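TODO from last week: model Broad specificity phosphatase PhoE.
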Amino acid sequence: MDAWDTDAMVTTTVHLLRHGEVHNPGRVLYGRLPGYHLSERGHEMARVVARALTDQGRDVVGLVASPLQRAQETAAPIAQAFGLVTGTDERLIEAGNRFEGTSVGSQPWRLLNPRWWPALRNPRLPSWGEPYREQADRMQAAVQDARIAHAGHEVVLVSHQLPIWVTRLAYEGARLWHDPRHRQCTLASLTSLHFADDVLAGIEYTEPARRLSASLSKGAWSVK
């Protein structure tokens, strides 16, 4: 997006932070299942993001996370770095998914078993889980509340890949159905929404933990 004129405007930034790598040796599509925590590398990713925000002198005065453990753990180093208490917002939770709990290993085509066909009938909705529109609506409502509560400052919302990505698409006015392989939302990445007053003036995408993300196994199908 184009740069914006901040004269006489209240500028607020809402950072949408994807959680770090999860400990998941069984390669389960865990979705909203409890008990999935960050791996050691995931904790390091979270620390890297916190350091990046502090090194950049970010004016972070608010921190809210999805209720899921991996998001809460990702928020922890930021809370410590900025002296904040992490709030919890159900609207930031992972997308609902009927494949939740399925172990697919590195072979996503296992989901093409005939018993799953009814759930795959409409990928544009998608028919296997929470509709994209509903995800974007709840996320945008959370962003709006965070923007108002922390007007003139910066706030971090810790969420999950799909909800963050469809929220970005919604703000950009793009269609919400998409090829998952083309999502620009790596682990521990920041999708930063810059507002001038109540108008979205720019979207910035950064990967503070890029080095750690790049060290992940290439070609393995992501279930995060």
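Done. The chain has a mean pLDDT of 88.
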